[in-house]
């Protein structure tokens, strides 16, 4: 007998999204004005507040159960958070991150002192989001702890060995998790591109060229994440988003989840995964056979955020059926494969197309999980 499809009352929801949204021109202009000294930080914040309030209402209007602030106060999905950790600073590097056919702005982070989490501005960012969500679930998105090591530089005079660095990194994130919870957060997402890079032989070679062993790094990252989320409150949902790069509708890595599936699905103590699955670069659903926890949700990123054309609904439903061969349908959800603006530049589609994509996700989910 087929198991009945059940509604979900807690995150991740049947129709969900990764978090970042295209920055409206009003926000882009205000950020430029602030950078040039034409307006104050308070004036910039008022513009951001107004636009965040607007897009929260839009998310609710199209039927999403979880809402984000679109990451409107950030330039990057990861650096803005990381450089506000104690002991970390951002700086303009010699070159940006290389994507296929393009490169990001030149910026990165480095660890210059002992890590800690004390007076982080994103706690206040979350509190504002929470204040305008009404009865909807406010989701906070932050980079996984892995990203500080994967993208940052570490002063060896501060941390001479991996053990002390990863110990402090886990402790710092554990404090972050608690701080967001105390601020009212019940849905926290860790964004982590490193796992997709472990799936790519080309990227694994680049990791080895840095003098690092991919298998050892995977174990270090998994251990650190588990230490960071240990002892979290029972009513806090923590998910992880994994993708192969997203900048101006381009990408970095290719490769299916097979090399990391067992570590992710059986080794990480989190509640769900947002997985990129919008192209053949992500491989098939076979790695989902390692999902052996009944409480683990898999959010299939079958709808692309990289272009505006809407996918055929029946094609998406067929792919959900394919995934359900490996994971119970009640453990599956649907989302875009990534955010729409991992950096403030955004992907190559319009805001109207963005909302149409998200509405598409809601409508398909309503059909599948009736």
Please report the total strand number as a whole number.
13
Q: Name the poorly predicted regions.
A: none
User: How much is the average pLDDT?
Assistant: 92
How many DSSP H or I helices? 12
Distance between the termini: 18 Å
Task: Give the strand order, joined by hyphens, for the main sheet.
Answer: 7-9-10-11-12-13
| CATH architecture type | Alpha-Beta Barrel
Q: The biggest beta sheet, please?
A: 6 strands, parallel
Supply the number of structural domains. Answer: 1
CATH level-3 fold name: TIM Barrel
Helix content: 25-40%
- What order do the helices and strands follow? HHEHEEEEHEEHEHEHHHEHEEHEH
CATH class: Alpha Beta
Short recap of the structure:
Helix content is 39%, strand content 15%. With 370 residues, it is α/β, with parallel strands linked by helices.
Structural notes for this entry:
- A hairpin with a 2-residue loop joins strand 3 (98-99) and strand 4 (102-103).
- Helix 1 (25-35) packs antiparallel against helix 2 and helix 6 (162-182) runs parallel beside helix 9 (214-229).
- The longest helix has 21 residues, at 41-61.
- The chain has one domain (65-368): TIM Barrel, CATH 3.20.20.
- Helix content is 39%, strand content 15%.
- It has a 6-stranded parallel β-sheet with strand order 7-9-10-11-12-13. It has a 3-stranded mixed β-sheet with strand order 2-5-8. A two-stranded parallel sheet has the order 1-6.
- The chain is of the alpha/beta class.
- The chain has helices at 25-35, 41-61, 79-82, 121-131, 146-151, 162-182, 194-198, 201-209, 214-229, 258-267, 313-323, 351-368; strands spanning 66-67, 86-91, 98-99, 102-103, 108-116, 137-138, 140-143, 153-154, 187-191, 237-242, 272-276, 297-303, 332-336.
């Amino acid at each position: 007998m087929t198991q009945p499809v059940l509604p979900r009352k807690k995150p991740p929801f049947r129709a969900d999204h990764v978090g970042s949204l295209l920055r409206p021109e009003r926000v882009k202009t205000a950020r430029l004005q602030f950078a040039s000294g034409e307006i104050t930080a308070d004036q910039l914040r008022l513009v951001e507040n107004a636009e965040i309030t607007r897009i929260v209402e839009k998310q609710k209007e199209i039927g999403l159960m979880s809402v984000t602030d679109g990451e409107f106060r950030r330039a990057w999905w990861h650096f803005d958070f990381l450089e506000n950790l104690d002991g970390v600073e951002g700086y303009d590097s010699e070159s940006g991150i290389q994507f296929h056919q393009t490169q990001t702005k030149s910026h990165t982070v480095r660890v210059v002192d002992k890590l800690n989490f004390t007076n982080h501005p994103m706690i206040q960012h979350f509190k504002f989001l929470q204040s305008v969500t009404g009865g909807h679930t406010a989701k906070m998105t932050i980079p996984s702890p892995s990203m500080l090591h994967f993208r940052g530089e570490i002063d060896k005079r501060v941390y001479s060995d991996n053990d002390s660095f990863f110990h402090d990194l886990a402790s710092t994130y554990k404090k972050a998790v608690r701080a967001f919870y105390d601020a009212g957060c019940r849905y926290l997402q860790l964004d982590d591109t490193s796992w997709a890079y472990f799936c790519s032989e080309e990227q694994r070679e680049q990791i080895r060229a840095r003098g690092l062993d991919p298998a050892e790094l995977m174990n270090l990252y998994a251990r650190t994440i588990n230490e960071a989320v240990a002892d979290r409150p029972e009513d806090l949902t923590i998910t992880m988003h994994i993708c192969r790069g997203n900048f101006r509708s381009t990408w970095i890595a290719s490769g299916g989840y097979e090399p990391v599936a067992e570590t992710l699905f059986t080794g990480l103590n989190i509640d769900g995964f947002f997985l990129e699955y919008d192209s053949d670069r992500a491989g098939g659903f076979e790695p989902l056979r390692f999902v052996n926890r009944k409480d683990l949700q898999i959010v299939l990123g079958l709808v692309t955020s990289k272009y505006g054309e809407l996918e055929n609904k029946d094609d998406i439903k067929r792919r959900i059926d394919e995934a359900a061969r490996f994971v119970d349908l009640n453990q599956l959800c649907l989302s875009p494969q990534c955010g729409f603006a991992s950096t403030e530049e955004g992907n190559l589609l319009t805001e109207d197309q963005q909302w149409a994509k998200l509405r598409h996700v809601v409508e398909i989910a309503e059909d599948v999980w009736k």
